[in-house]
Amino acid sequence: MTHPQLEVLRRNIPGLRLEADPAELEHYGRDWTRRWTPAPLAIALPADVEQVQAVVRWAGANSVAIVPSGGRTGLSGGAVAANGELVLSLARMNRVLGFDPIDRTLTVQPGITLQAVHEAAAGHGLAYPVDFAARGSCSIGGNIATNAGGIRVLRHGNTREWIAGLKLVTGTGELLDLGRGLVKNSSGYDLRHLAIGSEGTLGVVVEATLKLADPPPPTQVMLLALPSFGVLMEVFAELRRRLRLEAFEFFTDRALHHVLAHGGQAPFSDVHPYYVVAEFAMRGEADEVAMLAAFEHCTERAWVADGVIAQGEAQAAQLWRLREGITESLARHAPYKNDVSVRVSAMPAFLAEAQALLGREYPEFDVVWFGHVGDGNLHINVLRPGGMDGAEFVGRCEQVTRLLAETLQRHGGSISAEHGIGLVKKPWLPSTRSEAEIEVMRGIRRVLDPRGIMNPGKLFDP
Ligand code: MLT
Ligand code: ZN
């Protein structure tokens, strides 16, 4: 412990766990981006809200920067501690605090994993419908801080839609109780929504009251192979018109190539440019008939080059693995990730322009496209070619991101759809938000964190 006041902190807050051995610093100092060398001052693991407040007040008094930390599965460097910050990990605050059957809410501590939330909701015969592949490791506090999206946004919306209330410890150590689970509350600014997506720059989420939904209906899963993105959009519109879509996810042949290289069986004998995993609600025979008719309709028009409808849960899970396994299969290539959005209707034009530009300017890169069609959200992963040095790779990828940012501007899109801005996308925030908007954000940050100790350097500079 290098900071002389850390001993004071330890003495004054009985029960606060403070860690500073090198393995812990390494572990808690990085997130899934793996680009920065972890160098935190120490790790504070509070057990309750009062301890969080005490740590934040100590940090303010001693001018120590805090990095709020959940499951650190983020992909934008929002939870990286590489500059002597105190990591404030919510890992010990991971319990369900209450369930209300009338309100249909679950109140939880921020360190609970998304999967544990799913299980707790299911235990009460209900569902928490936000879902994505990192569910077993990511925490609800981190989901709130990034307004996490995922594979069911098309049906249920982002995390924001499911937060009935939250408690926030601001940069001054003040505890704000925001929303309080009220369905209607027309009493001025909804500060809860400022905290959601603020990436730890306004304070630390210390409790959340989550709305719950009806349990999911039985579903049917399909994998389709498609000749072009234009056709893919026709299929999307047609299926959405005829059926209740629960998810509609796409990936390219390169994505499938990497998933299969990681293990698994090719779904079709031929390779196709695009694939879709679609899931539909099946609430009776009529849905079954409608699904088969929709499948036939798409096949007759030669939109679908090949397709399979899952026969049972095991095959449905197998088809989903082709989509959900992409991130893991790419991880060993240390990909440079872009997570962009445009309006759904603008996707074909953006994708065509961006693919042509990247192919022309960066032919040496293996670029893997996948994402959430219903949300206009495209993941563009650039893989490091063998023999290219890491620093050169990042430098060239930043040029790729610049090119994407310019293209996005022409299509009215955003440089971050669901991963946040963090450190990785900070240089390109002005391509998505106007200078006036960023100035307003700076002002809000100054009010809630006047000493600038909450996750400094992330999102935008002071
Ligand atoms: C996904 O959709 O799989 C996630 O956003 C993760 C990723 O982009 O790698
Ligand atoms: Zn995603």
UniProtKB/TrEMBL annotation:
Belongs to the FAD-binding oxidoreductase/transferase type 4 family. This is FAD-binding oxidoreductase. Keywords: FAD, Flavoprotein, Oxidoreductase. Its cofactor is FAD. Residues 36-215 form the FAD-binding PCMH-type domain. It holds the Pfam family FAD-oxidase_C. The keyword Oxidoreductase applies. PANTHER family: D-2-HYDROXYGLUTARATE DEHYDROGENASE, MITOCHONDRIAL (PTHR43716).
